[in-house]
TrEMBL record:
This is Metal-dependent hydrolase. InterPro entries: Amidohydro_3, Metal-dep_hydrolase_composite, Metal_Hydrolase, YtcJ-like. It comes from Pontibacillus marinus BH030004 = DSM 16465. CDD domains: YtcJ_like (cd01300). Pfam families: Amidohydro_3.
Length: 540
């Protein structure tokens, strides 16, 4: 029986698919019908069809699925004040004045991406006192490059101190001076609190930021994402509306899974009571993701929860945000209401706490496919437990490129082989994804693959790779950007592969990954991106 609709033929292409054994020199033609792959055949297409696209012998593979990022924040960074390139306090002030030429007319002054640890003209990190040099009467908020730290003005600090709930945030995340006063500098969940409670974007601003971000995703072949954005728009309902509005306008070509970041059990219960959709529910392009829970901070700030003291700060083991009982309760409540859970657990003590919560019968982990984000420090016991519990782990290999030289200040020497232990995770049959954490990490999936395969920076340092025994293969790395994220969506039978019956989300590459040397992977490039059988980006 003849299929209804028009079938397009993608002719003269090579196929790369991890573990599938497509030979780099073998040519195929692919039938695409109603946005899905209807057939894959060896050789050139020889029949008559007006809808034939000549692939000119180029390589196609499934589009990239970035399982951990912050798309709204990325889009806002592109349209708001970007401070990622400033190298001094003087330069930062100049950029603020350039972006806000009429400062007296502004109520808020906002910027993101600064790194004052590298400033050359001051001998301390910025505080509210320093921000007086810009203006003494404005709400000012500047987010650090890694998203885990911020500095705010005195006026905003006064407003923050009036917030009753803020005083419940862990003291470890609030910087104080020698007299016990707040300096205006905050870390981790205190940063999220300020974002969420004091400075949220309008629906119009959020939708515009999402639309601004789209071309960047498409040029890198990213066709699906999992994103945590709630802190930048206030409520999950507003976030949902921003994404679905962009979809209705035809400006959301990708599929987005929206996580809901919660602060406590009450926040979770409110979501359950007020929002009737659950993980996987939604529209064609916008779906409910997971409940996001932060368990600890970051190693750079010594706030990641470790089981042993930091070598660079021996009096600290970091901070767990929740008691085990609190975490167990939230994970159980989310699970019993059909919500997947994604937990930020960077230090090994936080990973241990996450696994204890996921090991509850009420968590139903192997069915709901809960995940641990980062897990940058593990241990043999934690690897075994993760495998037994059935949790997924989301990794961000591009972080290694800038952090490898600092690791010995963050973990004891005996634990270094368990830092970003990607190969050990694979050996224990722990399903892992590769992801960007953009805009903190590189949005380009090829950069993450390069880092996972080589474990060096772009200058190929250190020689031979840092902890080279933890390198992944090319197949393992690309699999973590395709099939494994689809499993987290319960869509592994319809996306993440070039296969009959799967959605036609794919990219054209400038060369076949199996024909390129590991250290030359950064030469790999996306030339075209297709979503549901339609070309949405071309480099030409």
């Amino acid at each position: 029986m003849k299929k209804a609709g028009v079938t397009m033929i993608l002719d003269n292409v090579r196929i790369y698919q991890p573990y599938e054994g497509y030979h780099p020199e073998v040519i195929h033609h692919i039938e695409i019908h109603d946005g899905s792959i209807a057939g894959i055949h060896k050789g050139r297409y020889s029949s008559s069809n007006d809808q034939v696209i000549d692939g000119n012998g180029k390589t196609i593979m499934a589009g990239f699925n970035d399982s951990h990022m912050h798309l709204l924040r990325f889009g806002l960074l592109k349209k708001e004040l970007d401070l990622t390139q400033v190298t001094s306090w003087k330069e930062m002030k100049e950029e603020v004045e350039k972006h806000y030429p009429e400062i007296e007319e502004e109520e808020w002054i906002f910027g993101k991406g600064f790194n004052d640890g590298q400033f050359t003209d001051i001998d301390h990190l910025l505080t509210a006192e320093d921000l007086d040099e810009i203006n003494v009467n404005k709400y000012m908020y500047f987010m650090h490059q890694d998203g885990h730290e911020c500095v705010i003005s005195k006026k905003l600090l006064n407003k923050l101190e009036e917030e009753e709930l803020f005083h419940k945030e862990p003291e470890d995340f609030k910087e104080r001076d020698q007299d016990g006063g707040l300096t205006g500098r905050f870390k981790d969940t205190a940063v999220h609190y300020i974002n969420h409670h004091l400075w949220e974007r309008s629906l119009e601003e959020a939708t515009e930021a999402l639309e601004t971000a789209m071309p960047y995703l498409l040029q890198y072949g990213v066709t699906s994402i999992h994103t945590d954005d709630r802190s930048f728009i206030g409520s999950y309902k507003s976030l949902w509306k921003a994404y679905t509005e962009a979809e209705k306008k035809g400006n959301l070509p990708i599929q987005a899974h929206l996580h809901h970041y919660i602060f406590d059990r009450q926040d979770l219960q409110s979501f359950i009571d007020s929002f009737d959709k659950r993980t996987g529910d939604g529209t064609d392009r916008v779906k409910v993701g997971a409940i996001k829970i932060f368990l600890d901070g970051t190693q750079r700030l010594h706030t990641a929860a470790m089981r042993q003291p930091y070598p660079g700060q021996p009096d600290s083991i970091g901070n767990l945000i929740y008691t085990q009982e609190q975490l167990n309760d939230m994970v159980a409540l989310a699970s019993q209401n059909g919500m997947q859970v994604a937990m930020h657990a960077l230090g090994d003590r936080a990973v241990q706490s996450a696994l204890t919560a996921l090991d509850q019968e009420e968590a139903n982990t192997k069915v709901l496919r809960h995940r641990i984000i980062h897990a940058q420090t593990m241990g043999e016991d934690l690897l075994k437990r993760t495998s037994n519990v059935g949790a997924y782990i989301e990794t961000q290999p591009s972080f290694l490129m800038g952090e490898w030289s600092e690791k010995d200040q963050w973990v004891p020497e005996s634990l270094l082989p368990y830092c970003d232990a990607f190969k050990k995770m694979q050996d224990y049959n722990i399903p892992i994804t590769l992801s960007s954490d953009a805009p903190i990490g590189s949005l380009d999936p090829i950069t993450s693959v390069f880092a996972a395969v080589n474990r060096t920076n772009t200058d190929h340092e250190p020689e031979g790779g840092w902890m080279p025994q933890e390198r992944l293969s090319i197949d393992q790395s690309f699999y973590g950007f395709g099939v494994t994220p689809a499993e987290l969506e319960f869509q592994e039978k319809r996306k993440g592969k070039i296969q009959e019956g799967y959605v036609a989300d794919f990219v054209f590459l400038n060369t076949h990954p199996e024909t390129i040397k590991n250290h030359e992977l950064l030469n790999l490039m996306v030339e075209e991106t297709w979503i549901q059988g339609k070309r949405v980006f071309s480099r030409e």
